[in-house]
Amino acid sequence: MRSILRWCVSFVIAAFFAAPFALPLAQARSDAGPAAATQGIPEAAVADLPREAREMLRLIKQGGPFAYERDGMVFGNFEKLLPLRERGYYREFTVKTPGISSRGARRIVVGRGGESYYTDDHYASFRRIRK
What we know:
This protein is of the alpha+beta class. It has two domains: 1-31, no CATH class; 33-130, Microbial ribonucleases (Nuclear Transport Factor 2, Chain: A), CATH 3.10.450. 34% of the residues lie in helices and 18% in strands. It has three helices and six strands. The model is unreliable at 7-37 (pLDDT under 50).
């Protein structure tokens, strides 16, 4: 019984001291609006994207069909270059690269809020697509 009591006290103390550090991250993930969260990410107009990226945007809007099995899968944002959101918020789609038989490095990542990002270097950098 004493060990359970010690564990409970330890848990409460740990939660008490960790709470002030957890709150700012939670607010950054949910309360920050899209404009605040995307500061520092360069933008690109749709017209400035490659033809294949513009075609993929059209396919995303109409719901497919998509050429690759992984299109529409969850994008984990492990690089943390996009605004932090809960897992499942972002989906990724392959942008075909002429002359390459594999998926290549180009992707469009779409957020649940309707925002979209383009990368041509396999997630090393992103540009927010301005519609």
